[in-house]
C-alpha cells in the first residue's frame, strides 16, 4: 500500500515562539526546533513518530499579530534565525522522514510590507491596486459595513491619500487584492520560492477570504442571538467577505502551482458548514485544496462533548466530501483554548483528552496534533498585564494556548525569561516519557500503531449503531485488518454487548488497563479502547 505522508501520516503543529529557545532570549527559534527533532521522530518508538511539522509563520513581521502580519514572504524573522537555519532545519527534518509545512498568509500582509508602504504612498503608485482601496461614502463613513474579525470596522482611513483600505483582521494587516493578476502571480512566486528550498506544503491562512464580493455589498445582520453574542464580527453574516464563490478559482491557481512539484500539499483554513468546507477540495475533479481544515472538534466545550453529537459531526463531514477527498481532524491550534481546558467543568478534562486522542488517531483522515497536546497541556492562566495577543475576540485572547512547551520540571524551554509564562510544569515530557500510563505514552502507542495499520491509515470508516447512549463506536476496515474503536463519552461506566456480527479478538490500545477482548464490554467513565475484530 502506498504511504502518502499528508494522507496517512500525522501532522504536528509547532508554534515556533514556544517550542524551544536555543539562544536564551526567551523566544523559541528554528535552531531550537532542530535540537528537538529527535523528540518528534527519530525512527524509534521512543519518539512521538510524527510525519510532518507545520510552523505558524516564521517570516519577518512586526508581530502585531504574532507573525500573521508578514513584512517579507521570502525571509526568516531574526527572532527565529536566518535562511541558513531554515535550510538546515528542512534538511535535518527530511533526514528523519519529517516533512515541513510552512504557513502561507495570502489574504493580507503587514502594513509595513514594502508593497503596502508603496501602495499607500500615493493614488498613482504602481502598487496602489495591490491592496483594496475605496473612497469614503459621501458622509465620510467607510465604504460598507464590514466588521474586522478582531472587531471594529474592516476599513481604515488613510489621511494622506484620502481613501479607506480594507483590513479583514487588524489595522496592521491590510488585505491584498487578489483580483490584480500581478498580486496573484507574485504570491505564486512565493510558493515556488519555498518549494524550491524543499518545503513540502503550505497551511493557508484564511483561504476563504482571499476574494470578496467585487461590489463590496453590505453584509446582512446575523439574526441568531447565540451567534451574535460570540464576537463583534459575529454580529453580521459574512455573506460578501467570506466564502465568496470566486475564492475557489484562487484556490485552483494555488493548486496548479503546487502540482508542478512532486508530493506537495496544501491545507486551507476555511470556515462554514461541512458542505462549504468540502467545496474547497474542488468538487469531482479534486483540483482544489488537498485538505480543508475540519474544525468542529475545536469548538467542543463541555456541553458539546456528547457521543451522538460528535458522531454526527464526523458523519456529516464524511458525507459532504466529494468522492476521493480525504478527511482530517483537529482538536486544537494556536487560536483556541486547549482541549482539556474546554471540557474541564467538572475537573475531568484530562480524562476526556485521552478519549479525544484515541478518537483523533483512529478516525479516518489526517490527524493534526497541536504541540503539547501529546502531554496533555492545559490552558495557562496568564496575568492580565502579561497578555500579548492583540486579538481579544475570544475573551482573554489566545496567549493561554501558546505558552512554552513543557519539556521538564525545570524550565528546559529557555535559559532566559520565556516570552509567555510557563503553564503547570508538573505536566512535562521528561516525566511522561517512561511512564506507560502517561498521555505521551498513549500518543506514542497510537501513532506507531497507526503507521503500521492499513485499517487506520486507509480503511473504511463504519460507525456502529445500536449501542447505548453515550457510546461512540466505529470500525476501521481494510481487508483482513479490521479494527473497532469504542469510546465512552460519559462519566459513568457503561456495559453493553457487541452485536454478534462483531467478534473481537484482542484489546490493542486503551485509555485505561487492557482487559481481554470479549463480547460484553464494560467501559469505565471516559474510557476508550481500540480492539481487533475477527
Ligand atoms: O474570521 C474569524 C471570525 O470571523 C476567525 O475565526 C478567523 O477565521 C480566524 O481567526 C483566522 O485565523 C488565522 O488568521 C488570523 C490569525 O490571527 C490567526 O492566528 C490565524 O490562525 C489572521 O491572520
Ligand atoms: Ca531564541
Q: How helix-rich are the residues, as a percent range? A: 10-25%
Please count the helical segments: 14
For this structure, what is the CATH homologous superfamily of the largest domain?
Glycosidases
Strand order of the largest sheet: 9-8-7-3-2-1-11-10
Question: Which sheet architecture does the biggest sheet show?
Answer: 8 strands, parallel
Quickly count the domains: 3
Q: What integer value in Å does the Rg equal?
A: 23 Å
Distance between the termini: 21 Å
Instruction: Kindly report the CATH topology of the largest domain.
Output: TIM Barrel
Oligomer type: single chain
Mean pLDDT: 97
Structure description:
The protein has 534 residues and is α/β, with parallel strands linked by helices. It folds into three domains: 5-109 and 180-452, Alpha-Beta Barrel (TIM Barrel), CATH 3.20.20; 114-166, Alpha-Beta Complex (Oligo-1,6-glucosidase, domain 2); 460-533, Immunoglobulin-like (Sandwich). The protein is built from 14 helices and 18 strands. It has helices spanning 5-8, 30-40, 83-95, 114-121, 181-196, 225-228, 247-259, 274-279, 307-320, 339-342, 349-360, 429-433, 439-452, 454-458, and strands at residues 11-14, 52-55, 99-104, 133-134, 155-158, 163-166, 201-204, 265-268, 291-292, 328-330, 366-370, 460-463, 471-478, 481-488, 494-497, 504-510, 520-523, 528-533. A hairpin with a 2-residue loop joins strand 13 (471-478) and strand 14. Helix 2 (30-40) packs parallel to helix 3 (83-95). The chain is globular, with a radius of gyration of 23 Å. The model has no long low-confidence stretch (mean pLDDT 97). 6-O-alpha-D-glucopyranosyl-D-fructose is lined by residues 65, 68, 105, 149, 169, 205-206, 233, 269, 271, 334-335, 391.
